[in-house]
Amino acid sequence: DFMQASWDVEEIQAKGIQHLASFVKDKNAFPCLLKCTEVITRAMKTHTDSLELQVEGCTLLLEILTQALEQGVLMALDEGVASCLLHTVRKHCENEEFLSSLCTLLMMVSASEVAAENLRKVGIIPDLLSILRHFLRNDKICFSCCAVLWSLAVSENNGDQAVLASAVPVTCAVLQKHLQNGAVAESACSALWALALQGCVTDSDCEPTAALLLDALRMNPERAVLVRNGCLALASLVRLSETAALAILLDSKGSGIELIKDEYHLHFDEPGVAGALCLLMNEMVQYDEVLLDMRSQKMEKLLSEIKLQFPFS
C-alpha cells in the first residue's frame, strides 16, 4: 500500500523493494511476496532511469521466482508484467551485467506457458536477438536467451513465423561460438529444435544447421539432454529437407550414422535419447537414397538393440 500510494517517488519505491527483500529468507512470507511481483515490476517500469532500483527489483524477482520454482509454483505473469520487463530490457540494453540477471529472470518467467505467451505477445523476440548479437561471447546471456527462445518458439499457436525465422542464424551463431560449453550448446540445440519444428529453417540453411548440430553432438557426447534435443532438431530438419539427411550421411567430419550409433551406446539406458534417435531414423528412411545408405551401414542391428532395450516403449 505504501508503494502504491506514491508511484512517482523513486526513494519510496526503492525503500519498499528493499524492505520486501528483507522477507525473502522468511518462508512464511513467501505467499505474500508472490502477490508483490506486479508492484515490483510497476516500480521498475515507473523508474526505468534508476539502474539501482532496476537491479534491486530484478534481484528480488529472481529470489521470489527461484523459491516459486523450488516449491513447484509456476508464476503466470500477465501481459502487463511482460510489458514492464520488455520496457526494462530496452532501457538498459547496453548494460551487460544487468542484462545478464534480467535474461535469467526472463528465462525463469518463460517456464510458465502463459507467461511465455505474454512475452511473445509484447514482442520480445527481436530484443532477445539483438541482445544475443551484441553479447555473443557472454555465455550466461546466451544460455538464458536461447532458453527463452525455446519457450517462445515451442508454442503451438505461434504466429511469429518471420520473426522466428530471423532467430535461426543468431541461434546458430551462439551454438558455433559456445560448442564447447555444454550448458549453452544444450540451450541453443533446444532453441534450434523448436525453430525447426515450426518450419523456420530455410532449405538452404538445413545443411549447415545439420552440420552444426552434429558438431554439438560430437563435442558434448556425455550430455543426454543435449543429445536428445540435438537429435530432435536434426529430425525436424530432415523432415523439412532431404539435404539435411544427406548432410548427416556425408558430413565431412565423419559419418553421422556412426555418430548416432556411438551416442546410443553411450546413453543406452536413456529412453529419451533412444526415442529421439528412432524419430531421427524414421525421418531419414523417408528418402530412398538415404534408406539404401542406412541399410548398407547395418542400421537394422541398432534398431534391434533399441527394441530389445525398450520392448514396452
TrEMBL record:
Molecular function terms, GO-annotated: ATP binding; protein serine/threonine kinase activity
Keyword ATP-binding included in the entry's annotation: yes
EC code: 2.7.11.1
Enzyme's top EC category: transferase
Keywords, in A-Z order: ATP-binding, Kinase, Nucleotide-binding, Serine/threonine-protein kinase, Transferase
SUPFAM superfamilies named in the record: ARM repeat
Catalytic activity annotation: L-seryl-[protein] + ATP = O-phospho-L-seryl-[protein] + ADP + H(+); L-threonyl-[protein] + ATP = O-phospho-L-threonyl-[protein] + ADP + H(+)
Protein name per the record: Serine/threonine kinase-like domain-containing protein STKLD1
